[in-house]
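Objective 1.3, modelling of assemblies. Example input:
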Amino acid sequence: MIGFDRVTKSYDGGVRAVDELTLTIHPGEIFGFLGPNGAGKTTTIKMLVGLLRPDGGRITVSGVETLQDPLAAKRKIGYVPDQPEVYEKLTGLEYLNFIADVFLVGADARARAITRCLDQFELTDAAGDRIQSYSHGMRQKLLLTAALLHDPEVLVLDEPMVGLDPRSSHLLKEIMREHCGRGGTLFFSTHVLEVAEKLCDRVAIINRGRLIACGTMEELRADGRSLETIFLELTEK
Amino acid sequence: MRPFFALLKMLFKQALRLGPAGSGGGSRRTALVLLALATAGSPLVLGLYAVFNQVYTLLAPAGEQAAVLTMAVVGGQSIVLLFGLYYLLSAFYYAGDLPLLLPLPLRPRDIVGAKLALVLAGEYLTVSALVVPIFLVYGVRGAGGWWYWPLALAVFLVLPVLPLAVSAVIIFPLMRFTAGSKNRELFRVVGSLLAVAVYLAVRFSVLSPREAPGRVGPWLRIGHTLSGLSWAAFLPQAWAADALAATAPVRALAYFLLFAAVSVFLLVLALVLAGKWFFRGAAGGYGAGLGRGGREKILGRGVFGSRSPLAALVFKETRVFFRTPVFVMNGLISTFIFPVMYFIGSRNRGWGYAGPGAWFTTVLVAAGVIVFAAGFGPVSATAVSREGKMLWVSKHLPLSGREQMTAKLVLALLFPLAAAVVVALALVLAAGAPVRDAFQALLLGLAGAWPAAQAGLIIDLLHPNLDWSDPQRAIKGFNGLLALVATVVLLGAAAAGAGLLAVLGVGAVGLLAFLFLFFLLSGLVLFHALGRPAERRYPVLEA
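Predicted structure (tokens):
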């Protein structure tokens, strides 16, 4: 479970990137986080995974408050950022082993997880190469593999479909459904409204740092309008 | 605007943008950073002024005061040549902007010229710390004629051009002919370090003053020898010094024109080579082919062995550092330049050991070289900065700031450890000192390297430069200078304490024990102090 309680974050200029955000995402739920560019999606995600410190409010991950016990919270999270910046001088396999060591994944468990994910994402042949030779999509898939290694309770993905080919994109959606089918929580941001429409149990729309809509697809489309229409109307205000 | 000038303008804007991304007050922040830089560097400049003023006073009675000018020119150009190699490698071949520049309709000489100008601007800052105080001493003491001041400015402006052009002439063929190799990065680092080694060997070995008069070639000149003080200069360097020391303006101008002509010739040669080889060398750095192996080979036995989180961090830090050519070259050159000079000097000039009666001085000097190597090397003072945009990886891991910094400290200490081995070998093998003296120097030096490295870590943790796409910007910065100042303060405090004890009648053994304990205590205090900023700063750092 993820909880945001009146979470606020401002940057240097005083602009509130996230303004009193309150949200609860339940176990087993696929939750889509939508909003135009610069709305505060990535800032919210960065606060959730411990990359940014909120100015106010509290965030909990499976009952652990991120500011009180950040390391315990991080152990419960698997995270893929929007930009797949990663140590280019390591090989894919070295990076995955590094992540597994840090998340205390044993030798047998990591061998199974890495082998399965690399095969699924068709990365096995490139796993011994340095990451600097990987394409954007390959880096994205490597980071997805790394995020799944320790079988996290909460999966946080920032624009996960960007850069993925159709097959990998389809595979990722299956992995997302599987993760939530096992009781895990999935929180992801996206610009692709179709993906949100087809995949999410609930979505939230954020604009200029403020939550402007949240609910199931049915709740949002009460009058039969498409998610795109709702999104455009809400974010124009 | 011509493409060259458009590119030049953009590169300078990018380089001078010192504040974090998105922050306001750009020019004010830049001015503040430059002011802080000047403030931090001024003790060094003032100190050098005082030292060379004294040297001038010593040399003047024999009419050898112009030797300080040779020292300025040779020293300044040596610094540019040694560091210019990797600055140019970094700017031309490992910069993050190359994938953006290569597809543009720019001629190789536009890109090379603009980047060379940027590196040149940086070199003026670097050499000014050494050259300006010496030129001032010579001018203020009134040794030059009325033409001295404008000529000194002209020599200063031309000074870095020649060694930079030489560096470029070495680098372009090196990059071109290693472009197709699978191990090109290794070859490039080794090739560049070999060039540095050759230069140092020529500088300190062939030009040994005891043998020089009979051995030097027509391209070298030994000048201004007094009481064993000898400075050998390549001919253009001698011309630059002669221009400033000349007693008639026509003679001064003639020497300067000779110096400037050679510099311009080499610059043109570098640009011609750039036109021929730059694109082919640079293109080899991108789109590396995937060296695919069989599934069994890639996921074979032993691949999935586990380590402790701290060991995993240390391995990651070490791999990333040693596989990034710019980091390796900077780290190795900065850390080993003094120990290697000490080794060569010990072999050729008897620097290291003056006999059993001088064992105390021997140990102190050798230990000082090790501590200085720790402070001068940038490995600790850029440990956090080197994370750059990858900081998110470290920050999202379930590891404390203390653990992260400990891993960085382990890597930072590897360098002074290796420097200590070089110094110990210099003492035993090159200078013929007893093993016991070398061992004492090694222990004392490493004890001092510990607090020096930690001071660098704390400085970088408090003010890291994480906003870079060119790795050179990560490793060459203000923090290295501050770490050097911190090391000088540490050594100064140790020397002051030892001096006080010496006045009180404490013997050599007691003084060494004091220094050892002082360094250990400083190390412990800083290790404790490192924990707090690590826990406070690491979570709030943003790339």
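Chain B has two domains: 39-283, 309-540.
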